[in-house]
UniProtKB/TrEMBL annotation:
Stated role: Catalyzes both the phosphorylation of dihydroxyacetone and of glyceraldehyde, and the splitting of ribonucleoside diphosphate-X compounds among which FAD is the best substrate. Represses IFIH1-mediated cellular antiviral response.
Protein name according to UniProt: Triokinase/FMN cyclase
Residue ranges crossing the lipid bilayer per the database entry: none
Active site, per annotation: 221
Region Disordered, annotated ranges: 349-370
Subunit structure: Homodimer. Interacts with IFIH1 (via the CARD domains), the interaction is inhibited by viral infection.
Domain DhaL residues, every copy: 372-535
Family: Belongs to the dihydroxyacetone kinase (DAK) family.
């Protein structure tokens, strides 16, 4: 069965995606009659070296996302996972040459079709008198014994685009750029892993994996890797990958040693969530730094994908300060990330938690009669709630998920445990604030949040006064906070209804000479059965 894809047609999807990118980016233009995207300011490149790259579509944002000042001059796109046509490559070379550039460097990933087609276009352009050089990038660190075809070109190619682009922007000549990027490419390695395959539009998945397997060392077109390993944690998979990439017995290893400085790329192959990508990046940083490797820059995102493949690749590039300056050089390429120009390793990654506000003197004084009364009341409330646990759960099962009693019992036990640590504070405001924090941390669920809101808001009017009008105002403040953030109103058949009914009776406390217990007794009765609502 073929996979579902949001395309207009299988045949036209490569043209459509390039057209969409150009339509949304005024800095790009299409070359008429060809699947080629170029900088829209080609005339500004007179006297400089042009940089062209490309390959099959399906690796977005590579390659067109890296067109811009300080990176590529243009790209030539083939159909999905297919090398671009020789005629289009040659047309791109002619276009940049006729714009006044002094030479063109072709940056090509090491795949047979790309080598042949770019190579043939290069020879034809040279025959026309156009200075053209070509570098073939092979950064795959999967194979421990090198094959005749050499290492495959993977995500590390994007770093070559960046280095070459910075050199070209600085006015360096074609021969020197070719020499320098060829040297850089030898100090780089990439390894990929995937949880499952991808599928070319109109086709079935390129390979099958069992539910408990992952493919290690695969290519960006779904080519087979070097191992199929059992599913493991992100830490374990990243550690395995880095060990493989840096093992000196591996003919394609990256010569990373303790004390080395590297640029690290964590590249989404298309189908991983940002959540997973962050976990992988954290694992890679911890593993590298644990081996004494200094991470100079860390690039995390999607740079060279394989359609919707749920996997990632890691790239390591050994760097020194001159090379870092080229990596840090400005670029307008849309897909190049805004990377901080400082070392990742050695940076402080956390700051101290804020200090708790100092409590007013005497606010937590223990042992007074008010404190003892509060403790007795709280203990009585907790005991009652614990005795009603099953009853409340049964009531809740009729209308909800049946955990009301369990949730309130959890709160009651937390309060009992807190009371065992010492007497509660004498200040009502402090008492409500402490209970708020306790319920937010221990009660859980929406009930814990709502009670926390209620108590936090109710504590505020009691900071200045603790007379009966202040307690009525505290009730009003708590109810207002619950309505504001919980979005419930009286009559919605929520926990607010009982509290609201009780709060209306406590309005009597705002009148001079109000009777404390008379209003409180009415509030309790109304809270048990809000007017107009069934029990």
């Amino acid at each position: 069965m073929t996979s579902k894809k949001l395309v207009n047609s299988v045949a036209g999807c490569a043209d459509d995606t390039l057209a969409g990118l150009v339509a949304c980016d005024p800095n790009l233009q299409l070359l008429q009659g060809h699947r080629v995207a170029l900088r829209s300011d080609l005339d500004s490149l007179k006297g400089r070296v042009a940089l062209l790259s490309g390959g099959g579509s399906g690796h977005e944002p590579a390659h067109a996302g890296f067109i811009g000042k300080g990176m590529l001059t243009g790209v030539i796109a083939g159909a999905v996972f297919t090398s671009p046509a020789v005629g289009s490559i040659l047309a791109a070379i002619r276009a940049v040459a006729q714009a006044g550039t002094v030479g063109t460097l072709l940056i090509v990933k090491n795949y047979t079709g790309d080598r042949l087609n770019f190579g043939l276009a290069r020879e034809q352009a040279r025959a026309e008198g156009i200075p053209v050089e070509m570098v073939v990038i092979g950064d795959d660190s999967a194979f421990t014994v090198l094959k005749k075809a050499g290492r495959r070109g993977l995500c590390g190619t994007v770093l070559i685009h960046k280095v070459a682009g910075a050199l070209a922007e600085a006015g360096v000549g074609l021969e020197e750029i070719t020499k320098r990027v060829s040297t850089v490419a030898k100090a780089m390695g990439t390894l990929g892993v995937s949880l499952s395959s991808c599928s070319v539009p109109g086709s079935k998945p390129t390979f099958e994996l069992s539910a408990d397997e992952v493919e290690l060392g695969l290519g960006i077109h779904g080519e087979a890797g070097v191992h199929r390993i059992k599913m493991a944690t992100a830490d374990e998979i990243v550690r395995l990958m880095l060990d493989h990439m840096t093992n000196t017995s591996n003919a394609s290893h990256v010569p990373v040693q303790p004390g080395s400085s590297v640029v690290m790329m964590v590249n989404n192959l298309g189908g991983l969530s940002f959540l997973e990508l962050g976990i992988i990046a954290d694992a890679a940083v911890r593993s590298l730094e644990g081996h004494g490797v200094k991470i100079a820059r860390a690039l995390v995102g999607t740079f060279m994908s394989a359609l919707e493949m749920p996997g990632f690749s890691l790239t390591l590039l050994l760097v020194d300060e001159p090379l870092l300056k080229l990596i840090d050089a400005e670029t307008t390429a849309a897909a190049w990330p805004n990377v901080a120009k400082v070392y990742v390793t050695g940076r402080k990654r956390s700051r101290a938690a804020p200090t708790e506000p100092q409590e007013a003197p005497g606010s937590t004084t223990a042992g007074g009669s008010a404190s003892k009364q509060m403790a007795l009341v709280l203990e009585r409330v907790c005991t009652t709630l614990l005795g009603l646990e099953e009853h409340l759960n049964a009531l809740d099962r009729a209308a909800g998920d049946g955990d009301c009693g369990t949730t309130h019992s959890r709160a009651a036990r937390a309060i009992q445990g807190w009371l065992k640590e010492g007497p509660p504070p004498a200040s009502p405001a402090q008492l409500l604030s402490k209970l708020s924090i306790l319920l937010l941390e221990k009660m859980g669920g929406s009930s814990g949040a709502l009670y926390g809101l209620f108590l936090t808001a109710a504590a505020q009017p009691l900071k200045a006064k603790t007379d009966l009008p202040a307690w009525s105002a505290a009730m009003d403040a708590g109810l207002e906070a619950m309505q504001k953030y919980g979005k419930a109103a009286p009559g919605d058949r929520t926990m607010l209804d009982s509290l609201w009914a009780a709060g209306q009776e406590l309005q009597a406390w705002k009148s001079p000479g109000a009777d404390l217990f008379q209003a409180l007794t009415k509030a309790v009765k109304e809270g048990e059965r809000p007017e107009g609502l069934p029990l």
